[in-house]
Amino acid sequence: MTINPARHLVSTKFSPPRIGTKHVPRANLIAQLDQMHECRLALITGAAGYGKTTLLAQWRQARLKAGAEVAWISLTADDKGYAPFCTALIEALRRLGVGVEFDLLQEDGTATAMDATIAAIVDAAENLSKELYLILDDYHHVEVPLAHKLVQKLLDQGPGNLHLVIASRVAPPLSLSRLRVMQQVVEIESVTLPFDPAETRTFVEENLGRDKLNADELNLIHELTSGWPSCLQLIVIMLKNRPDTRSILHDLIWRSSDLQTYLSEEVVEHLPAELVEFAEALSLFRRFNAAMARAVTDRADAAELIKRMEDENLLIYRVDSDDRLAWYRLHPLFGEFLATRLARHGGDLQKQLHQRAARWFAEHRCLTEAVRHASLGEDLDFATQVIERTAPSTWSLEYLGPTLHLLERLPEEVLLRHKRLLFLACLTVSLTSRPARAKAWLQHLSTADLQGLPEIANGLPMIRAAIAVQDDDTDLVIELLEPLRDASVENPFLRYVLLSALTVAYSAAGRYSDARRLFDQHPIPPEDRGNDMAMVAEFSSATNLVAAGNFRDFEKVGSQLLEHSTREGGNRSICANLCASALTEVFYELDRIDDSRETIANRFGLLHSSVPDVIVRTNVTRVRLDLLQKGSEAALAFLEQQIAHLRCLGQVRPVAQLLGEEIRVLLLKGSRGRAGELLETLDELARQHGTERGARAELPAIAALARARVLKAEDSEQTLAQLEIVRAYAKAFDRGRMAVLADLLAASTLEDLKRPDEALQRARQAVSDGQRFGLVRTFIDEGPLAERLLARLVEEQAVEGEVLAYTEELLAKLNDPFAVNASAPRPRRALPTKTQAVLTKREIDILALVAQAMSSKRIAHTLDITLETVKWNLRNIFAKLGVSSRYDAMIWAKNHNLIE
Q1: Residue from 674, 652, 653 nearest 662 by CA
Q2: N or C: which end of the chain has fewer CB within 10 A?
Q3: pLDDT for 200-216, tens place per residue?
Q4: 65 falls in which pLDDT band (50, 70, 90)?
Q5: Are 362 and 370 in contact (CB under 8 A)?
Q6: Cβ contacts of 593-596, under 8 Å, gap ≥ 24
Q7: What is the DSSP string of 645-678?
Q8: SS3 letters for 555-581?
Q9: Distance separating alpha carbons of residues 791 and 332, to the nearest angstrom
Q10: Would 554 be classed as within a structural domain?
C-alpha cells in the first residue's frame, strides 16, 4: 500500500500569509519580479523582518489575477532534511497540476532516484500549457546538500514553463553562474528590500492615519529604521498603544523591549558566540573594513567573519567609497542594540577599541575618524597630535564635528599652546555660529608668533570674514576679502572659504554679476568637485538665483547639488543641509508643499544656528508650512519660540524677518492689536540698525513691508509710501520676489484709492516679473487680494501669451477648493469662457491616460513625473473645465476631440 506523506503536512504550509488592507504595495520590486515569465529563477535574499514574505504574497496575488498557476511552500526547520523537503516540494508541485508519485522518493537520495524524480516533474510540467510558479519561502531552513542538489537539477533541467521563486535569509548554495549569463535569474538583494521614504510614510499613515505624525517625525522614523519593515511595524504598534511616546520617538524606537527581543531571538540567538562578540566590537564604528576590523578586534580572521556577516544578511551594508577597500556599516538600530550589549563589558573595553581605531584611521589618513575615536577613547593627546600633524591640503568640513567634540574636552590652556589646533578651533567655531568664542581665540592667535606658519598667518582674514558673515556684517567681508580675491591661496579649504564668504557678501549687496565673475575667474576644478568646502562655495554661488528671485532656475541647479553633496558627504553633511535650506524655500514658492516639508524634515540645526540667510529662509518657510498644515496657533507658537532663541544669539536680521512674519500671521488671524505692538518692536530694530549697510540694510524694508500690511485697511496713502520704501530697496539690491510682492500690494492699494489704471499697470508688472521668475506662493499666499487682481488682468485682456497662461494657472490654484492653501472648501469662481478650453499639452496627455483607466500613480510612472505633479495638473484641469471628477474631465476632452 502506498502512503501519501503529504497527508501529514498542515495545509497552512502551502498558503501564504494573508495580506492586510493596510499594506504598502511594493510596485518597484514587483515590477522586477514580473520579469519571471522569461526566467528560471527569482532569488530574494534579505535579513529577518525585511518583508520578503509580504513582497512574495503581493506578487503571488498579481500573478493569480493574471491567470497564472502559483504554488507556495512555507519551509520550516522541520524541512531541513532531504525527505521532508522532497515531500513538501512534490506536494506543492501536485497543487500546480504537476503530478509526481511520492514513491519516487528515496531516503538515501541516490542519483538514480533523483534523476527519476526530475524526469517525472519535467514530463508532467511539459504537458501543461500554463506558466507555473513555485515559491519556496524561508529556504534558509534547508540544510542538507542533497536538497540543494535536487533544486539545482530542477533549475538546470526543468521545463521552460516552470519557474522557481526562492526567498531566503542567506544566499543558497546553488550554482547560478550559467543562469546569470543567460539572464535567467531575477535577483533582489537585501539592500533593495527596505522601504523608501515614500513607502515608509505610506505604511505609517495606513496604520496610524493621515496627519498623525508630522514630516519631521516621519523622516526621523525612516532614518532610524532605514526602512526596515518589521521595525516599522513595532513602532506603529507602540504609537497606537502609547501616543504620548511621540515626544521621545528617538529613544522609543531602539530601546523598545519588543525590538530588543526581536533582535535577540530572530537575529542574534542562532549566531556563534565569536561572531556576536565580533559584531558587538564593530558596533562602535560608523564604518569598517576587514583591515580596520582586524586591527581593532585583534582577530586574524576578521575578513572571514565580515564575509559571513554579509552572506547571512546580518543587517550589514556595503558603503560606497572611492578607495579600493570594501567598507561596511551596520543597520543603525542593530548597531545600537549591539553597542548596548557591548556596554555590559565595561567602559575600559570601549575605550580600548576607540583608541585602536584612532591609530588605524590616523595611519590610513582618515583624519576625521582618527580625531573622533581618539576623543571618544579619551586619548586627548593623540587627538591633538593628529590635528597638529594634519596637512593644510587635507582640511575639510568633516573636521568640524570631531574638532568641536575635542574642544569641549580639551582644557583651554592646552588649546592655547598649540597654534595649529587653535587656528582650526577658530575656524571651526566661526563656521558653526559661535562668533563670540571665535573672536576671543582669534585675539590670542593674532598676537602670537606665527613665524614659520604662513598658512595660519594668511588664513586670519578668512576667519575674520567668517565671523563677519555670522554677524551679518557683509560690508566688512568685502573689505577683508576683496583685496585677496585674486591672490594665490595654497590651502584649498581656505580658498573656498574665501570664495564662499565673498559670494555671500556680494549677494547681500545685490552684486550678482561680481559673484558670477568671481567663479568665472576662479572656477572649481573637476578634481575638487568632491571637496566639501568647494561644494559650499558652489552652493553660495547658486543661491544668488534665490536672492534675485529666480526660483525656477535654482530648482534644477539646487536639486543636482543636493544629490551630489548627499552622495559625497551624506544626508546630514553641511553642504547637503545648506542645499536643503534653499530648496525647501524654493519648493514652497513653487507650490510643491510636500517636497518642501520633506526637504526640511529633521534638519533642526538649520532652524537654530547657521549663517543668517539660512536661518531666515528655513524659519520663514517652516512658519508658512506650519500655517498651512497646523494653523495659525501652531505657526505663532513656533515664531515666538524662534524669535526668543535668535535674540539670545544676537541674530538681528533673522529676528526682524520673523517679527515681520509674525505680524503677517496675526493679521490673517485678525489680531490687529498684537500686530501693532510687534510693529513697534520691529520699528525699533529698524531705527537701531537703519544706517547699516550690507545685509542689515534690509531691515528698514522689512519694517516698511510689515507697516504697509498693518496700515492697508486704515491709510492707503501711507501704505503706498511704505511700499515704495520696500520697492526702492528691492530695486537697489535686485530682490526680485520682494519687488513682485511690493507691486502686488501696491496694485491692491491703488484699487482701494480708486486709481484703476495705475492698479492695473502695477498688477501687470507683478505678474510679468512673477512669470519670469516662476513665483507661485507669493501670489497664492495673498489670497483674495491676488485673486481679484489676477481675474481683472484676464477679464480685461491686459496680459497675453505666456503671461496669460501663467495668470490663469495662478487663478486656477486660487479657485481650487482642494488646494493646500484653501482654509476651507469654498465655491469655485466661474472663469471666463475662453479659458475653459485652454489645456496644456501635459494636461491633455494626463487626460489621455485617464481615459485608459490608469491610476494617478500609474500616470506618474508612465509620464516620468511625480505623483504630486499629476494631482496638481488634475486640479488645474478640474478648475479650467468647471468639473469635479476625472470621468467628467475625460468626457469633456473626448467631446472636444482632444483625446481619443
Answers
A1: 674
A2: N
A3: 888 888 888 777 777 77
A4: confident
A5: yes
A6: 593/625, 593/628, 593/820, 594/868, 595/868, 596/621, 596/625
A7: HHHHHT-HHHHHHHHHHHHHHHHHHT-HHHHHHH
A8: HHHHHHHHHHHHHHHCCCCHHHHHHHH
A9: 54
A10: no
Please write the tens of the pLDDT for every residue from 106-128: 445 677 778 888 888 888 888 88
The conformational region for residue 397 under phi > 0 = left, psi -120 to 50 = alpha, else beta, is alpha
- 151-210 pLDDT tens trace: 999 998 888 889 999 999 888 889 888 888 888 889 998 888 888 888 888 888 888 877
CA distance linking residue 821 with residue 777, whole number of Å = 9
Residues 83 and 144 in one domain: yes
Beta bridge partners of 45: 168
Looking at the structure, do residues 57 and 154 belong to the same domain, yes or no? yes
CA 152 to mean position of chain CA atoms: 42
Q: How far apart are CA 203 and CA 220, in angstroms?
A: 14
Dig out the grid coordinates for 886 from the structure.
476625472
End-to-end CA distance of the chain: 67
Asked if 169 and 313 count as a contact pair (C-beta separation under 8 A), the reply is yes
What strands, in cross-sheet order, belong to the sheet with 132-137? 69-74, 132-137, 162-168, 41-45, 185-188
Measuring CA to CA, how many Å separate 234 from each of 80, 254, 341, 818? 30, 10, 21, 34
> Where does residue 695 rank: exposed (0-12), middle (13-18), buried (19+ CB within 10 A)?
buried
Other Cβ atoms closer than 10 A to 306: 23
Give CA–CA dist 476/463, Å, rounded: 12
Between the alpha carbon of residue 315 and those of residues 171, 282, 311, 389, 631, the distances in Å are: 14, 13, 10, 37, 41
Q: Where are the beta strands (DSSP E) in 738-894?
A: none
Same domain, 130 and 9: yes
Q: How far apart are CA 663 and CA 679, in angstroms?
A: 7
Cell numbers linked to 231 = 521595525
H-state helical runs in 650-783:
652-669, 672-689, 699-711, 716-732, 736-752, 756-773, 777-780
CATH code of the domain containing 176:
3.40.50.300
Q: Which residue has the cell 583624519?
A: 367
C-beta separation of 227 from 202 below 8 A: no
What is the extent of the structural domain holding 122? 5-192
Q: For residue 417, count CB atoms less than 10 angstroms from its CB and return exposed for 0-12, middle for 13-18, buried for 19 or more.
A: exposed
Examine residue 807 and state whether it is found in any structural domain, yes or no.
Answer: yes
pLDDT band (50, 70, 90) for residue 704: very high
Work out the angle at residue 776's Cα, subtended by the Cα atoms of residues 772 and 782, and round it to the nearest 5 degrees: 120
| DSSP annotation of 484 | G
Q: Which CATH number fits the domain that encloses residue 893?
A: 1.10.10.10
Question: What Å distances lie between residue 410 and 415, 421, 428, CA to CA?
Answer: 7, 11, 15
**Range of weakest confidence among 614-628, 818-832, 849-863:** 818-832
Predicted confidence (pLDDT) per residue in 708-731, tens digit:
999 998 899 999 999 999 999 999
Is residue 58 domain-resident?
A: yes
Digit-coded pLDDT (tens) for 640-681:
999 998 888 888 999 999 999 999 999 999 999 999 999 999
For residues 356 and 352, what is the distance between their CA atoms, to the nearest angstrom?
Answer: 6
Q: Is residue 435 part of a domain?
A: no
Q: Judge contact between 746 and 765, C-beta under 8 A.
A: no
HSE-up of 161 (CA within 13 Å, CB side)?
19
Contact 134, 97 (CB under 8 A): no
- The 8-class DSSP code of residue 306 comes to H
Mean pLDDT over the full length of the chain = 84
Count of structural domains, the chain? 5
At 878, is the pLDDT very low, low, confident or very high (cuts 50, 70, 90)? confident
